Amino acid sequence: MTAVSTAQATGTVDIMIPVYNEERALPGCVEVLHRFLTEQFPFDWSIVVVDNASTDRTMEVAGELARKYERVRVHHLDRKGRGLALRESWGSSEAAVVVYMDVDLSTGLDGLLPLVAPLLNGHSDLAIGSRLAPGSRTVRGPRRELVSRAYNALIRLTHGARFSDAQCGFKAARTEVVRPLLGQARDEAWFFDTELLLLAEHNGLRVHEVPVDWVEDVDSRVDVVGTAIDDVKGLIRVARAKANGTALVNGLPRRPLPRAIHPDAVLSRSEGGLSWQVLSFAVIGVISTLANLALYGAFRLWWPVLAANLAALVITTLFNTEANRRFTFTARNTSRGKTHLQGLVVFGLYFAFTSTALLVLHAVSPDPPRALELVVLLGSSALGTVGRFFLLRSWVFRRAERKDDV
Question: Mean pLDDT over all residues of the chain?
Answer without folding.
Answer: 84
